[in-house]
Amino acid sequence: MPRGKRASVKWTDKSMYEFLCLLVEYSEKQIGKLPKRPVLEKWIGILKAKCGEDFLIGSLKSKYHRMRVDYQGICFLRNHTGLGWDEEKQVVVASDEQWSDFIQVYPLLNSLRDGLPNLDLYEIVWGSCSATGNLASPTPNPYLDSQEDLTMDTGPRSGEKQPRSVDPAQNKRNKGKVKISYEDSISAMATAFVARQERAVSSRVSRQTDPHSEDLFEQISDIVTAMSEFTCRQRVKALEYMRTQPTTWKMFIKFPQDMRMSGYDSSDEDDDVVLLVCVMDSVIRKIRRQSRIPKHVSAFSGHEKMCELITGHEGLMLEHIRMNRDCFHRLVTLFTVQNRLQETHTLTVKEQLMMFLTMVAHGDSNRRTSYEWKHSGETVSRYMDTISSHLVQLASKFIVPPDFNDVSTVIAENRRFYPYFQGCVGAIDGTHIPCVVDADVAAAYRNRKGFTSQNVMAVVDFEMKFTYLVAGWEGSCHDARVLNVATSNPAFMFPHAPEGKYYLVDAGYKNKPGFLAPFRGQNYHLHDRRREDGDRRKEMFNYRHASLRNVIERTFGVWKSRFRILRGIPRYPLEKQRNIVIACAVLHNFIKLFSSEEAVFNPEDDAVDDGNAQDDVGEASTQQQQQQQREESNDMGHIRDHIANAMWNDRLD
Fold it and tell me: Above pLDDT 90, what percent of the chain?
């Protein structure tokens, strides 16, 4: 054993239990976070005193990550269709044949068939912060037959009626009715009025001081005087209540409550007074509705704004909706012909789409969009949801796998890349889109940079178009896990490259058939190549690999600059936030296909901050990288060595 190093200590059942107990105690303060170094040093002393074993800090960190991965595997087994789960014994229920077929697809879960000891402690530590991918959704593959079974339900199209829910007790409503007395009906009416008035009492107090209040009481007096069914005494008493109370509407809130709470046996005259006050209140609210000031009174309506953009300078449309006039008309035709949107008496299809495009292009809030386009917040929210859902349905038309038989002109016309990367069909990477989640699931969505996000994995070609995309994974999930699930689960419809073809991936992924990663432990970027240490042959391969794979980084930059809503999606439901990400990817490809103008953005104003939108938010630990190195495929290793040798030999020639 080398001098100055301690031998690694094996974990026993007792030491694992004590370590779990420490994690449970720590999770009460910091949910789902790895303890800091001072805490780990303290735990080393505790474990040594209780178990007699002297662990290293690295051993505790590695065990923490290993236990978290095991718990995620247990969660996957419990939710996997086709496998049973014994809640009492906390083990998988499956026949040997079923388990054998399952392990062929998921070999890393073989050790979890008998469950985990002390699973209840695992639940306390990681139960609310583990990434499950329940909301993850891929873009549909247009080449699969069973398309409808695998895509998510995005709701009925515009114009389609949703089935009404039938109340089982609806047919019995007219049976056994109890006749309500006159006094009870007045009391129920007063109670409903109290709840309604308490919500708006502050605004109505301000209206009480308005200069037209005397005119309002004169109108009420005239109406009340004309009611011949009430006596003069009752009319005078009701008007007196209206005038003498500090706040007219508080009077009616107070009067029936006092009458009910005191148990006062009201006479017919008092009942008639209450009824008269109800009538007067109805008159007041009617007059208020007739005299209230409308909210959207600007002479420049949303329709006129749309017409100005369409008929105005071409640059205005590029700035506001990120596409030119011809591209926008194509999008309108697509939604109209397929009957996805219908014109209403207040909104045309063009205005619906343009309102949606300005929201995703500039990241405007619902309230600002409502003011700019002179429509209610409910209308804005409804079309935001409807159009994003329809764009998700259109993903199978515009986000399609590449042609695996063609060689991209970017590779074929560049001697640095051809013929070395002629088998490359695209690049894969992940990016993090900030999202807003509830506090109970925030730990699972919090990435290593401290903000909540959803992990989005994308495949792009060398024309900067998306060919596949998965959105909705929790931000704490590592990029490699998203790719492993997408490639192993048929429901994700990943477009696997045929033999001899491959995607470019970064060092966070495994070098395996269909995925070409750079050499590990070597310089990768340009500023690293200036250093003297390293294998020059591998450095040259890594540098050209990075130059070609950089297309996905540029695609992410243009995508987030074009649709600024991706820098901070408002507080929508998580499914809606996921749909917005996929919808923006569909629009990105649509613009690439039908819009010739690409120089839309000012690089200084819209440059993506790499420090805040870096795509490798969930880096693998040292132990995970070492395990990936051991598992790397020899086939792709030979291909990588062959390309590196050919590059180096051609350079020497």
Answer: 26
Model pLDDT for residues 348-381, shown as the tens digit of each residue: 999 999 999 999 999 988 888 888 888 888 999 9
CA distance 587 to 570: 19
**pLDDT, averaged across the chain:** 75
* Residue 372, amino acid: E
Q: At what angle do helices 268-291 and 248-261 cross, to 10 degrees?
A: 150
The DSSP result for 346-402, as a single string, is S--HHHHHHHHHHHHHHT--HHHHHHHHT--HHHHHHHHHHHHHHHHHTHHHHS---
Strand 137-138 with 466-474, pairing: antiparallel
Beta strands in 577-631 (DSSP E): none
Q: Is the dihedral of CA 413, 417, 419, 423 positive or negative?
A: negative
Q: What percent of the chain has pLDDT over 70?
A: 64
pLDDT band at 281 (very low <50, low <70, confident <90, very high): low
AA identity, residue 530: R
Q: What's residue 168's pLDDT?
A: 42
The beta-carbon contacts of 290-297 under 8 Å, at least 24 apart in sequence, are: 291/212, 296/374, 296/375
Q: In the beta sheet, which residues pair with residue 424?
A: 502
Position 189 pLDDT exceeds 60: no
The pTM score is 0.65
Residue 593, pLDDT > 60, answer yes
Per-residue burial over 255-280, b if 16 or more Cβ lie within 10 Å, else e, is: bbeebeeeeeebeeebebbbbbbbbb
Q: How many CA atoms lie within 13 A of 631 on its CB side?
A: 11
User: 172-186, 346-360, 493-507: which range is least confident on average?
Assistant: 172-186
CB atoms inside a 10 Å sphere around CB 136: 24
- CA-based nearest residue to 403, from 495, 470, 513, 489: 495
Tell me the three state secondary structure of residue 234: helix
Confidence of residue 133 (pLDDT cuts 50, 70, 90): confident
Burial readout 315-329 (b: 16 or more C-beta within 10 A, e: otherwise): eebbebbbbbbebbe
Higher-pLDDT residue of 606, 8: 8
Q: Who wins on pLDDT, 75 or 134? A: 75
Residue of 344, 189, 210, 319 lying closest to 252 (CA atoms): 189
3-class secondary-structure state, position 458: strand
pLDDT given at position 257: 44
**How many Å apart are CA 71 and CA 75, to the nearest integer?**
6
Edge-to-edge strand ranges of the sheet holding 453-460 = 137-138, 466-474, 453-460, 424-434, 502-504, 515-516
- AA identity, residue 394: L
Q: How far apart are the first and last CA of the chain?
A: 47
Q: Other C-beta atoms within 10 Å of 398: how many?
A: 20
> Comparing 84-93, 127-136, 390-399, which segment has the lowest mean pLDDT?
127-136
Strand 502-504 versus strand 515-516 pairing type? parallel
What stretch of H or E contains 472? strand 466-474
- Per DSSP, the three-state class of 139 is coil
Helix (H, G, I), strand (E, B) or coil at 544: helix
How far are the Cα atoms of 322, 390, 398, 505 from residue 552, in angstroms, in the given order?
A: 20, 26, 18, 10
Q: Which two tokens stand for residue 106?
A: 């998921």
**How many of the other CB atoms lie within 10 Å of CB of 532?**
4
